[in-house]
Design brief:
Length: 286
């Protein structure tokens, strides 16, 4: 079936501009956005994958420097393959995403392992270094003032683990919440370190993270917080659906609102869910 197909093209030792690409993968024909996206493994960034417009210069010409997201995976594993459709779709709308785990061309090409809770800090450091160097695809093409930290399930704890990092301007916590847990270097105390707007994207009461996410929402008093919920979809979200499903569209609308000046206040603050049948929404502290 079409919805189950992922179009992938694999390459090795490819040079794009002045950045050496060790591996390259095309997913869902590059996404539905205006910029065909690819997932790559770069020589200077072992243990991560970068989801980005294939032609970054074209995207920058149309939009200005591109926002960045650092991403941690479900299970805190060192592979984003379960989220590649979701991340590709976001990248195709003019974002650069650094995801934990060397790029997997197939699910069987290596065994997945747990990743340290400092990995997102390493992703931020790498992007900052590349943006400030000359002669690479990210120099003068990414906006270090527009960085999001996101993650799914245990990966959401990874994102909250770096909540205090001032480079992060917004947070995206998917199928995740701390509640009274301690996980991946984060705990409910991590919420106190939030200094930007945060969105929880949850899969309803059948999502095992639902109760923790509700507790987090109730406890956050000092920054704006949104609770976007799709009842019945469960903990797996829509990541495996073509183009990442409605979770990807919700994520894009959030990032576009935070970083690109697109007014989605009706969606997030006034419950205009005409684009999102079945979803519920609540927000506070705005």
């Amino acid at each position: 079936m079409k919805s189950l197909l992922i179009l992938a093209v694999f390459c090795t030792n490819v040079f794009v501009g002045s950045a050496q690409i060790i591996k390259e993968k095309l997913i869902d024909n590059g996404g539905r956005g205006p910029y065909k996206a690819i997932a790559v493994s770069e020589k200077t960034l072992p243990d991560f994958a970068v989801y980005r417009p294939q032609n970054i210069q074209e995207a920058v010409k149309n939009e200005g420097r591109l926002p960045v997201m650092v991403w941690a995976n479900g299970g805190c594993v060192n592979s984003s393959i379960q989220h590649e459709r979701f991340l590709t779709e976001i990248a195709s709308h003019g974002y650069v995403i650094v995801a934990i785990g060397d790029l997997q061309l197939t699910a069987e090409d290596r065994k997945q392992q747990s990743s340290p809770d400092t990995m997102l800090l390493a992703a931020l450091d790498w992007m900052e270094q590349r943006a400030n160097e000359k002669g690479n695809d990210y120099s003068e093409n990414v906006d270090l003032g527009k960085i999001a930290a996101g993650g799914m399930s245990c990966g959401g704890a990874h994102a909250l683990r770096i909540a205090a990092d001032k480079r992060v301007k917004t947070y995206m916590i998917c199928n995740s919440g701390m509640g009274d847990m301690t996980m991946a270097g984060a705990s409910t105390k991590s919420l106190e370190n939030l200094h930007g707007k945060i969105i929880y994207i949850i899969g309803g009461e059948t999502d095992i993270a639902y109760a923790n996410a509700v507790m987090d929402y109730d406890r956050i008093k000092h920054v704006p917080v949104v609770f976007a919920n799709l009842p019945g979809i469960g903990h797996g979200g829509t990541y495996a659906q073509e183009y990442g499903g409605s979770f990807a569209q919700m994520a894009i609308d959030w990032l576009d609102w935070q970083f690109k000046g697109k007014d989605h206040s009706a969606l997030f603050l006034k419950n205009d869910l005409s684009k999102y049948p079945g979803w519920t929404m609540k927000a506070k502290n705005f």
